[in-house]
UniProtKB/TrEMBL annotation:
Every Methyltransferase small domain range: 188-309
Lineage, broadest ranks: Bacteria, Bacillati, Actinomycetota, Actinomycetes, Streptosporangiales
Superkingdom of this protein's organism: Bacteria
GO molecular function annotations of the record: nucleic acid binding; protein-glutamine N-methyltransferase activity
GO biological process: methylation
Pfam families listed in its UniProt record: MTS
Keyword Methyltransferase: yes
CDD domains membership: AdoMet_MTases
Organism: Actinomadura darangshiensis
The entry's keywords: Methyltransferase, Transferase
Protein known as: Class I SAM-dependent methyltransferase
Region spans: Disordered: 69-95
Length: 343
């Protein structure tokens, strides 16, 4: 883990730097407090200087909001400027969002050992930080923006997401694990007729929600895989809370053996993630999609079915055509037996 250093009170300081997004520690750091103006903070952040906050915590949140308003002001549009193609517009939008994240990530918060924030009116974030990072007995510095994301994730984990396909039982997503807030794809898995099988694989299980649905539908042996330790812990906790027996396996895509049903809900957008937390949404080069389709036949029992749950968002964004997707099926030796849609 990298360190961050700065000069304060005539002394040099150096502590650990934490960044879940994988951002490097800022090279230039200045001290900021309740007297710092939003215009000055925004200018410094845009120039690559981070602001280590020493004032009231709630004032730091207000400063961050003020900086966000300055970033989000709509730019002046040139007259008669043609709209870029959809794929180009998508990449330009992602570049702008990445720059926004970098700029807002320049407001930093100090932490004492035990994930304690030594600022006035600071909330108790020990549970939220411990869930994401584990225990920590050393001081460190992290981005306020990232901390607010941890707090939001902790609240979702505490509250849970009600799943109609599970009779209203809740799934509790962990930090960094894709949350089934929009459950249309879950409903599809709950409604499509099952093939006659006793074994099913849920490839890339995440929270474990699809594995839970398959088990509740009566499949006797469900194996759920993921390669992310956070997802595996999340699925394990959810399934235990639901009192559903599912075998959890750490694997890149498939477990050993074959099943009569193999389900996969890969990331929907074939683009490069800008941080580790985006891997649930972005699949660079359609790696997971291609890996699933290429290996599916070798993991299906005779007359087995593979259920690919995929949004057509990539097609609307101009990042993948329907013909390209169908060509992947054909090159993998797969036959499309049916299609079910939802909105």
């Amino acid at each position: 883990m990298d360190d961050i250093s700065w000069r304060e009170g005539g002394r040099d300081h150096r502590v650990r730097w934490r960044s879940e997004s994988g951002a490097p520690p800022p090279q230039r750091v200045t001290i900021a407090d309740d007297e710092t103006r939003a215009d000055d903070a925004y200018r410094l952040a845009c120039e690559g200087t981070a602001l280590l906050w020493r004032g009231d915590f709630q004032n730091a949140r207000q400063l961050l909001k003020a900086m966000a308003r300055r970033i989000d002001r709509p730019p002046r549009r040139r007259r008669n400027k043609p709209e870029p193609p959809q794929a180009q517009a998508f990449h330009l939008h992602r570049q702008a969002r990445a720059q926004r994240a970098r700029t807002l990530g320049m407001v930093l918060i100090p932490f004492d050992p035990g994930h304690v924030i030594p600022l006035r009116r600071a909330p108790d974030v020990q549970d939220a930080c411990t869930e994401a990072h584990g225990p920590d007995d050393q001081p460190y510095v992290a981005s306020l923006r990232e901390l607010l994301g941890l707090i939001g994730a902790h609240e979702w984990r505490e509250k849970g997401v009600p799943i109609p396909a599970l009779g209203g039982d809740r799934i509790h997503p962990h930090y960094g694990v894709f949350s089934p807030v929009r459950g249309e794809y879950v409903d599809l898995v709950a409604e499509v007729p099952l093939p006659p099988t006793k074994t099913a694989f849920d490839v890339g299980t995440g929270t474990g929600v699809l594995a839970a649905v398959l088990a509740r539908r009566g499949i006797g042996h469900v194996i759920a895989t993921d390669q992310d330790p956070r997802a595996l812990a999340c699925a394990q906790e959810n399934l235990k809370r639901l009192n559903i027996e599912v075998e959890i396996v750490q694997a890149d895509l498939f477990p050993d053996g074959r099943a009569g049903l193999v389900v996969c809900n890969p990331p929907w957008v074939p683009a490069k993630p800008t941080s580790p937390l985006e891997h649930a949404v972005y699949d660079p080069g359609s790696r997971m999609l291609r890996g699933f389709l290429t290996g599916l036949a070798d993991h299906l029992e005779p007359d087995g079915e593979g259920w690919l749950i995929l949004s057509d968002l990539a097609e609307h964004l101009g990042l993948r055509t329907r013909d390209e997707l169908l060509a992947l099926f054909e090159s993998s030796g797969l036959k499309v037996a049916g299609r079910h849609d939802t909105r």
